[in-house]
Amino acid sequence: xxxxxxxxxxxxxxKGSFQKAAxxxxxxxxALSSQIxxxxxxxxxxxxxxxxxxxxxxxxxxxxxxxxxxxKELWRNCEEDMNRIDSEINGKFSVSAGGTxxxxxxxxxxxxxxxxxxxxxxxxxxxxxxxxxxxxxxxKADLGILTGPVKDPHLVxxxxxxxxxxxxxxxxxxxxxxxxxTEKDVRKEPFIFFHPASAVRIALEKKWRAxxxxxxxxxxxELRSVESIIKSVEEGLGIGxxxxxxVSENLKVLPLQxxxxxxxxxxxYKKNSRSGLLLLVDAILKWRDSL
Length: 291
Fold this sequence. Notes:
By secondary structure, this protein is an alpha/beta fold. 42% of the residues lie in helices and 24% in strands. It has helices spanning 3-15, 18-25, 29-43, 59-83, 99-116, 129-138, 199-210, 226-234, 275-287; strands spanning 48-50, 55-57, 91-97, 120-126, 143-147, 155-170, 190-194, 218-223, 239-243, 251-253, 261-270. Residues 1-58 form the HTH lysR-type domain.
């Protein structure tokens, strides 16, 4: 068995057909089919069922797939370690994080890291907490940034930074000029909230429950993106809760500490990850202090 046959096999599965995989690999379909046939003869088993419209894995094919993916990952790790110059980070890595981190925290850090490591290629995948965790566990993202400690036996976690979720209004809002505001002062004001499953909403409601704060805001809007919240608040539609990192010059933080909440971000990655990822984690932790 040759490693190229492993790559060909995985490409066929990913593309869903021999022709699409052949086009991607720069091969003819007969040449690709020949290589898979050689592989099957060596195993003495059929690993792919060729249908008129789709390719299906046989039972033995499923077994081989699990090993093929491990071999591909091992080969990638080997290439990166062989090409590494001292402590320089190189290769391709993907990071998954929520909207606040992706838009206001990571860009500054990534810029510094890429300046120091010109052979490094980074991509950022924005997703909520559930999506980010699934991407890391499935191997589709190398590193995830999640809120709160993540309890999973397959993941390593490191504390990244502390964030504060604060109430904000437009700088033209009547409350923006007040230096002393109580929770009672905002009860009748409309609120622009994140959707109930968002990390920000969960952190706020957890804090209010823990401190027995009876707060039932008049919710005007429930939105999914940080940008939507910010734009709506800037237009004067109501009070919003956002990360202190994302407060723009058009917003004013209200002095309502009893309604603000603290949350922690953690870096998460799979155990036994390639060494280059550990260097990337160290670099991210190094540059977080520049925020």
